[in-house]
Amino acid sequence: VQLVESGGGLVQPGGSLRLSCAASGFTFRSYSMSWYRQAPGKERELVASISSTGSSTAYVDSVKGRFTISRDNAKNVVYLQMNNLKPEDTAVYSCKAVLFRVYWGQGTQVTVSS
Q1: For the segment 94-104, what is each residue's pLDDT rounded down to a tens digit?
Q2: pLDDT tens for residues 40-85?
Q3: Torsion sign, CA atoms 27, 33, 35, 38
């Protein structure tokens, strides 16, 4: 089982990034997927979730209207499109798969700074 995140980096405030989480080793289309983030000195926070079919999504209030979670079950990938990034979005972003078991990726760093 693997979840591999990519797409993180350094971006200026107001910029955009798209994170990807590529899954392998399990039946991706059956699992709900989530993105979490953890900033230095803070607890891990649920950012966005998407159902197994992609028909249902949910977001933490602080990212509503700026972030969009989506998935491609044919490619076994979940995405997080992040627009209008703010310095407070700086964190390590990780994806999580949940059904009967829970799988985590290793995370990708997002830094928003001028």
Answers
A1: 999 999 899 99
A2: 999 999 999 999 999 999 999 999 999 999 999 999 999 999 999 9
A3: negative
Query: Which value, in Å, is the radius of gyration of the alpha carbons in the chain?
Result: 13
Tokens 């209207």 -> residue: 65
Helix/strand/coil for 88: helix
Distant-in-sequence, close-in-space partners of 79: CB < 8 Å, separation ≥ 6: 18, 19, 20, 21, 68, 69, 70, 71, 72
| Residue at token pair 């829970």 | 102
Task: Give CA–CA dist 7/55, Å, rounded.
Answer: 24
DSSP string, 1-65: -EEEEE--EEE-TT--EEEEEEEESS-GGGSEEEEEEE-TTS--EEEEEE-TTSS-EEE-GGGTT
